[in-house]
Hints:
By secondary structure, this protein is an alpha+beta fold.
Amino acid sequence: MSRNELDRILRDIGKNTGTEVSLTSRGGSETAFPLEYCGEKYTAYLAGEGEEAERTARLVSYLVAQTDELPDRALHLKNILLGEGNREYARRYLLRCGMKDMPCYAVELILPRRMEEAIPIVESCLSDTGALYTRMADDRIAVVVPEVEMQLPVELGNFLVQSVYEELGVKASVGIGCERKSFEEIARSYAQAVAAVRMGELLKSDGQVHTYREYLLVKLLEDVPEGRLKEHMEEFRITGSEDAFADEELTGTAEMFLENSLNVSETARDLYLHRNTLMYRLDKLERLTGLNIRKFSDAVTFRVMTILYRMLKGV
């Protein structure tokens, strides 16, 4: 079994470095060198002779030795997602797993309860995706998904949420990070996935799947010093509109209206409201804030005001 795994590792090394290494002599001009893997000793062969071939042999020996030092794949994946370790550490992990580097993205799945029962369901959802996963905490699972054209990230997120709810009756939350060109950059995507869930909660966004791209505006504002944010609040006269933001029914209506691309009919249907009731609430919001969010420019301003208010109030 270990020989088959070593054969796979050598093939992966060949794909990533362009160096052909075999455990079987092919004859001709080649360099033989010793390899040790999983406590067993082998003789490997690579094409060519001389000093350059010997240097390559030492590199291959080093790479094989490093992959042999990753027995706990879940733990090491967790370390990589948390940004612990360098690019070489991530490359060794891929070699150990027998995987080829490719574009990928990270998913954060939050389950408030019944985690042990949920894990087999998550495994089943990921069975045909080539994804890797690890448990990050008692209520969190992180998933690394190879980027494929067959399934969009949001579709996978919805599939996970729906499957867990149908099987266990548990409402999960999902955050999705941006795609990265290489597995070596996956820690950044995972940080974005975590941030997406947090920002979704901050804005009380409808739905259980949150993508980092949705919250670019939030992220931009988070990078602004708090003092400057307070100045913006005063400029927008947000402090004079606190009655509007304190009214959860009113702000919830406004958020749904924005989610539905300013479509009155869809919003009334989704909120089970009469059209006149919806119009009354939008008019009330305009009286309190001075913004008619039926206009795109005012809708954008309202979204910025909402983010500023919640960030500074810690809502």
